[in-house]
């Protein structure tokens, strides 16, 4: 079995493709043979050590495949079952041992590549739109990086809920893609001041909620996009971590609320994971969410996938094929 292994934190070049042991499933574990593996920006944080983990490590937090073997005490899964998962490190490998509690059975209508493209991003969209701030018809939201894998899923879902969706993107191609996938308006942040444009689009009122996975480059101006008592949801830091030295800025800009959510907490209970997955799969099968896989790389080309992702050269979801 081969895997992508990180022996030291650093750039994409530290992603080494080499032989690795699979082992045997222990109590509560399953052995999975991957058919597709999702790539997410959080994988780069693990690679660089921004989110530190013991070395050596195998990055990756989502995948889809078939069950090869189940360990003692596992119920609900059997060899041959089609499964997908998110939220457990170590997916950049041909086969793996993982906790059965993190896996969900795939409906017949969801193929492996689609599953690998949506599990982490789609379940993140679920808790952002349904739990962090329950989006409802008539509300207006701002979603940064609307043409990314996460953005395309979330903007389509928010649109299906009846929200007015304003997105941001950095090129004509990405703007067109975002407009075709749930956004009512898209701001080119490389050419316009997005905070000024949001105020124009909302008649000076501001939006109800901002979803920001970009981080440092967009955080402060995102606060200027909110209406009084609006919510700033900072769920990622692609351009660097965010820090607030003066909490008073929230009161001065309208008694704003701020949260930094994490899926680990929203899906701490298996029942919550199953509820979210059921909602996600239903949205995909109904056509409310159309999954866009913009890039496919061989597992051995994981370093190229990271370079493309960090270089903002990707659109939609990116997957690795073992």
TrEMBL record:
Q: Which UniProt keywords apply?
A: NADP, Oxidoreductase
Q: Which CDD domains match?
A: QOR2
GO CC aspect terms: cytosol
Q: Point out the signal peptide segment.
A: none
Q: Where does the Enoyl reductase (ER) domain lie?
A: 10-320
GO molecular-function terms, A-Z: mRNA 3'-UTR AU-rich region binding; NADPH binding; quinone reductase (NADPH) activity
The domain of life for this entry's organism is Bacteria
What protein is this chain from? Answer: Quinone oxidoreductase
**Species lineage:** Bacteria, Pseudomonadati, Pseudomonadota, Alphaproteobacteria, Hyphomicrobiales
């Amino acid at each position: 079995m081969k895997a992508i292994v990180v022996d030291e934190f650093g750039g994409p070049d530290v992603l080494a493709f080499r032989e690795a042991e699979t082992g045997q499933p222990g109590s509560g574990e399953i052995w999975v043979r991957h058919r597709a593996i999702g790539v997410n920006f959080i994988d780069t944080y693990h690679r660089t050590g921004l989110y530190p983990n013991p070395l050596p490590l195998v990055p990756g937090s989502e995948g889809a495949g078939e069950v090869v073997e189940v360990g003692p005490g596992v119920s609900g899964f059997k060899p041959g079952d089609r499964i997908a998962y998110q939220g457990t490190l170590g997916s950049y490998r041909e086969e793996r041992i993982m906790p059965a509690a993190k896996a969900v059975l795939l409906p017949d209508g969801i193929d492996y590549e689609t599953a690998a493209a949506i599990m982490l991003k789609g379940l993140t969209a679920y808790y952002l739109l349904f739990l962090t701030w329950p989006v409802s018809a008539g509300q207006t939201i701002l979603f940064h990086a609307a043409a990314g894998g996460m953005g395309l899923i979330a903007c389509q879902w928010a649109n299906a809920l009846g929200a007015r969706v304003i997105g941001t993107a950095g090129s004509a191609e990405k703007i067109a893609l975002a407009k075709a996938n749930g956004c009512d308006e898209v701001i080119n942040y490389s050419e316009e001041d997005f905070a000024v444009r949001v105020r124009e689009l909302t008649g000076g009122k501001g939006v109800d909620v901002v979803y920001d996975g970009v981080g440092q480059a967009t955080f402060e101006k995102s606060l200027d996009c909110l209406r009084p008592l609006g919510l700033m949801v900072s769920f990622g830091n692609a351009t660097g971590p965010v820090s607030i030295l003066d909490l008073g800025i929230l009161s001065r800009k309208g008694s704003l609320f701020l949260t930094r959510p994490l899926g680990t907490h929203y899906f701490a209970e298996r029942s919550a994971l199953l509820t979210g997955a059921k909602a996600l799969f239903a949205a995909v099968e109904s056509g409310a969410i159309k999954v866009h896989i913009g890039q496919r790389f061989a597992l051995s080309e994981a370093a190229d996938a990271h370079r493309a992702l960090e270089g903002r050269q990707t659109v939609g979801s990116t997957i690795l094929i073992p």
